[in-house]
Design goal:
The complex is a heterodimer of chains A (447) and B (317). Chain A is an alpha/beta fold and 447 residues long. Chain A folds into 3 domains: 5-45, 3-methyladenine DNA Glycosylase II, Chain A, domain 3; 64-306, TIM Barrel (Alpha-Beta Barrel); 319-444, 3-Layer(aba) Sandwich (Rossmann fold), CATH 3.40.50.11600. In chain A, 38% of the residues lie in helices and 16% in strands. Chain A has an 8-stranded parallel sheet with strand order 10-9-8-7-6-3-12-11. A 3-stranded mixed sheet of chain A has the order 13-15-14, sandwiched between helices. Chain A is flat, with a radius of gyration of 28 Å. Chain A starts with a helix and ends with a helix. The model of chain A has no long low-confidence stretch (mean pLDDT 91). With 317 residues, chain B is α/β, with parallel strands linked by helices. Chain B has a single domain, classed as Alpha-Beta Barrel (TIM Barrel), CATH 3.20.20. Chain B has 12 helices and 10 strands. An 8-stranded parallel sheet of chain B has the order 8-7-6-5-4-3-10-9. Chain B has a two-stranded antiparallel sheet with strand order 1-2. In chain B, helix 3 links the parallel strand 4 and strand 5 (127-130). In chain B, helix 2 packs parallel to helix 3 (109-122), helix 7 packs parallel to helix 11 and helix 11 (271-289) packs parallel to helix 12. Chain B is globular. The mean pLDDT of chain B is 95. The chains are: A alpha/beta (447), B alpha/beta (317). Chains A and B meet through helix 8, helix 9, helix 10, helix 11 and helix 12 of A and helix 7, helix 9, helix 10, helix 11 and helix 12 of B.
């Protein structure tokens, strides 16, 4: 949010000297607020005024990058409170917690496994975004090796420090890889701020309430730390959610420069609900202690949902998707590449238990009726797409099932496909596919 | 310097709707005067309620991991209802008359009434009755249940824009609550409530079902349309300020990700636990987006959402 004219006016000298060409400072302030003037025209503007106006034109939440190279992750730069207002910009990074006192060979195995994880889902690849190395208080000597091993795998590293010394030992050797230093809860921030400033590393700051959190961030910034994340207080979910909400709102309203940073959360073992709330409510980096897929799969998927651009619906890659283990005699259906349409249809097909092929054609991510109205799901277009996808090579028959809503394209599609293809009109709703297979397909199927 | 983030105040509030009457212990939802779960800055006289879904017949499409806690009770609505309330702590029970669907048992409206009676006799909590889905059977079944169980304040699920008149009539005539279902569309949600209002349904007897997309299957659409509905309601729109019901269990347990073991196993983890957490990760964002009544399937999901809600409304209030 930009400053209002009155807010700017308070920063001006209020001398009405007219050197800027305006009759009064207030008039000048109003023009500044409207973006019609530049502060350079005021020869007496204070450094504070310049800083404030400069900050007001910057994004309300700073960008912070952790890591180096292909897998570096950038968070922040968010501009809205609700995703429907525009979109959330940077997906949060999920860092997997690694206990540095684990034997070195086991650490190497884990890092090899974790850095190789790739789950393809609806056009996105789910990966472990980084490693949060935990310094064991009793044995700080292990953290540097673990941090270096993680960095060697190309993964961004957060150091969940127990001591300043341990943090320094772990961060120093990988300082060119932009590590994130996370001081222990309740620690004196001073030495960690000095360390982060000296190494050019990113730093997490915390506070017992919103005031002290913002003040800690402002202090760190003054001491020369450029990349800051805020760890909001909250031992219970309601208090945490309150602070997550107020940090975002305060940042967007620019009430304090110390709030203009992304948010960091630690998620302990078994704290699944905290991870869910963090993912949907503004957390930018989360260090997650649980490593099981039963936790990560839903979290990755939730992040995908929340961070989808509402103006750009998720699209499936066009292709012929197998449901179950189809054979050449199995049904072949076609629908659009709007991911919600695909998911609805494929889930229903899964549930019905009839193995089949589902051809997904590029309809620019629109649902069936919308795509048809917009001319993206016409008989010609679908026919051409099916030929490009080589649908005929998957089945031994020449029958294609189309969504009931576009029964009207049957003739055109048969013409477009030629070669003896027949079009069978399916149900309008995916939920009726079961009865359709039983009542229509069983009698109409190519024998 | 002390930071002040101005509390948000709103001209509107969510309506209070009481579920259950007659032999039921009535429970009231709604009444919130701020953004969902923003207990730190607005009054929330009622906490969200949690229901468990039971069925009239053994639901063949329920996956084994969500069938397990209902072992011995599937298709026995009285046993399942008792278990839901007494063992699993549900505030409300939803009887899904899945067996009345022409393709899933084709049971008659009279059999539906019988199943509903069994549940009413077994437990004293408010009851949601869900029909078999769109089409004439939905009306036949729910109209009969509404007539035969008059005065019980049943929550009838659901009426849609294309077909609401008979359910509106029995809601008014027999003292029930009606769920108005719209396909993830704020304008249709509003339009349907206007139609219901014109059909003499008291808006204090209406819930909105904005249609739930499960995690990974359109959750974000439900999430955003619910936030927009809530903003409109708080802004003073009296045709959108009904409490919201979400059928979480049904949608969460449809996901492919809760059904398959997944490979490699280390990356997919334990399937049973994954299913429960899939349901939790569907439920919590919907609470944040404005759900007042969640219908769940797995008692472990209910227990965790219960823990979150109870903690929230103690800590935050």
């Amino acid at each position: 949010m930009a400053l209002t004219g009155l807010q700017i006016f308070k920063l001006l000298p209020n001398t009405n000297c007219k050197k800027c060409g305006c009759p009064t400072c207030l008039a000048f302030a109003m023009k500044l607020a409207a973006g019609k003037e530049s502060l350079d025209k005021c020869p007496d503007a204070s450094p504070e005024a310049q800083a404030a106006l400069g900050a007001a034109s910057a994004p309300p939440i700073r960008a912070v990058t952790i890591g180096h190279g292909e897998r570096a992750i950038t968070v922040g730069e968010e501009t809205v409170f609700f995703r429907h207002e525009k979109t959330f910009v940077h997906r949060p990074g999920f860092f997997r917690v690694l206990d540095a006192s684990t034997p070195a060979s086991a650490i190497e195995d884990r890092l090899t496994d974790w850095s190789a994880i790739r789950i393809d889902r609806a056009g996105e690849v789910f990966r472990v975004d980084g490693i949060a190395v935990v310094e064991s208080p009793g044995s700080p000597e292990f953290a540097p090796a673990a941090a270096q091993a993680a960095a060697a795998h190309g993964l961004p590293v957060a150091i969940l420090a127990a001591t300043t010394k341990g943090a320094a030992a772990a961060a120093e050797p990988i300082k060119d890889r932009r590590p994130l230093i996370v001081p222990p809860a309740g620690a004196d921030p001073g030495p960690f701020v000095a360390l982060a400033a000296r190494l050019g590393a990113a730093l997490v700051v915390s506070g017992a309430d919103l005031d002290s959190l913002a003040a800690a961030a402002a202090d760190a910034a003054r001491a020369g730390v450029a990349d800051i994340l805020l760890e909001p207080p909250g031992d219970d979910l309601a208090t945490l959610h309150k602070h997550l909400t107020l940090v975002r709102r305060g940042a967007l309203e620019r009430i304090h420069p110390g709030l203009a940073y992304p948010v960091f959360l630690r998620v302990g073992a078994g704290e699944f609900s905290k991870a869910v709330v963090g993912t949907s409510t503004f957390a930018s980096i989360m260090a997650v202690a649980d490593s099981g897929g039963e936790t990560w799969m839903p979290l990755w998927t939730l992040r995908q949902n929340i961070y989808t651009d509402p103006q750009q619906p998720l699209r499936m890659d066009p292709g012929i998707y197998a449901i179950g283990e189809p054979t050449g005699a199995s049904p072949l259906l076609v629908t659009t590449n709007f991911s919600l349409t695909y998911f609805t249809v494929s889930t229903e097909l899964d549930g019905v238990g009839v193995a089949c092929y589902l051809a997904v054609v590029d309809a620019e991510g629109l649902s069936v009726l919308t795509a048809w109205s917009a001319g993206k799901f016409s008989g010609d277009r679908v026919g051409k797409a099916l030929r490009e996808l080589k649908a005929a090579e998957h089945v031994s028959h020449r029958t294609i099932i189309i969504p009931g809503y576009v029964a009207v394209i049957s003739g055109e599609l048969e013409d477009a496909l030629g070669d003896g293809w027949q079009v069978l009109t399916g149900p309008q709703e995916a939920s009726d596919i079961g009865p359709f297979f039983r009542d229509v397909w069983e009698t109409a199927r190519p024998k | 310097m002390t930071l002040t983030v101005k509390p948000k105040t709103w001209p509107g509030a969510i309506r209070e709707v009481t579920l259950g009457a007659g032999s039921r212990q009535g429970l009231t939802i709604g009444g919130g005067k701020g953004l969902p779960l923003h207990t730190f800055e607005a009054a929330f006289p009622r906490r969200p309620l949690l229901a468990l879904e039971i069925t009239d017949v053994d639901p063949p499409r329920w996956v084994d991991t969500v069938r397990a806690p209902w072992d011995g009770a599937l298709g026995r609505p009285d046993v399942a209802a008792k278990r839901a309330v007494e063992e699993y702590g549900a505030d409300v029970v939803m009887l899904h008359l899945v067996g009345t669907h022409p393709d899933r048992g084709d049971r008659s409206p009279a059999e539906a009434v019988e199943a509903t009676r069994q549940v009413l006799d077994a437990v004293g909590v408010p009851l949601i009755v869900k029909g078999p889905g769109g089409g004439s059977r939905q009306n036949d079944v729910l109209v009969r249940v509404a007539e035969e169980c008059r005065g019980e304040g049943l929550v009838l699920h659901s009426a849609a824009q294309e077909d609401y008149k008979s359910l509106a009539a029995v809601t008014v005539a027999y003292g029930h609550v009606l769920v108005a279902e719209s396909p993830i569309d704020l304008n249709i949600a509003k339009q349907l409530n206007i139609l219901l209002s014109d059909a003499n349904v008291d808006m204090d007897r209406v819930l909105i079902d904005p249609m739930t997309g499960g995690l990974g299957y359109g959750l974000e659409y439900s999430y955003s349309v619910m936030q927009r509905i809530r903003l409109a309601a708080l802004g003073g729109d009296r045709m959108l300020n009904a409490p919201v019901i979400c059928l979480v269990g049904e949608e969460a347990w449809k996901a492919k990700e809760v059904k398959v073991d997944g490979t490699p196993a280390a990356v997919w983890g334990d399937r049973a636990r994954r299913g429960v957490q899939w349901e939790i990760a569907t439920a919590l964002p919907l609470l944040e987006a404005g759900a007042d009544l969640l219908v769940l399937r797995h008692p472990e999901a209910l227990a965790e959402v219960r823990r979150v809600v109870d903690g929230w409304f103690v800590a935050g209030s």
